[in-house]
Amino acid sequence: MPTADRQAVIAPGGSLPAGPYSHAVRSGDLLFISGQGPFDEHGRPRGETFAEKVRAVFDNIAVIAAAAGGDIHDAVKIGAYIEDYGNFAEYNEIMRSYLRPPYPARTTVPVPTLGIAIEIDAVVALPPSRPEHRPGAS
């Protein structure tokens, strides 16, 4: 039985994964980025204010997208989990500064028990890969 085309992406400079998962997985020309929190590459918290934390998360997503040959501007889906939904408007403004129209599809969920201010996962469309760079291609 053939296996799915899946390649793990670990981004130098990306936030340290907190468990047994990859920063992202590339499948075909889509990159599925794991939920990112406001942490640096050593797992230390980044940012004091909510805005600084959101920027840290989007910076992490941008680093991971770039490591796979993509760009955060090509996000097609964003999932955001916000501890305090009162910060929704501020999150919207910051997101708008990182992404461009057409904006990605999006889900935003309040999670009062999250334990961090915000976590965001993303799906990014990548440039089409050449067959010789795909696993198993001849």
TrEMBL record:
SUPFAM superfamilies: YjgF-like. InterPro entries: RutC-like_sf, YjgF/YER057c/UK114. It holds the Pfam family Ribonuc_L-PSP. This is RidA family protein. It comes from the Bacteria. Signal peptide: none annotated.
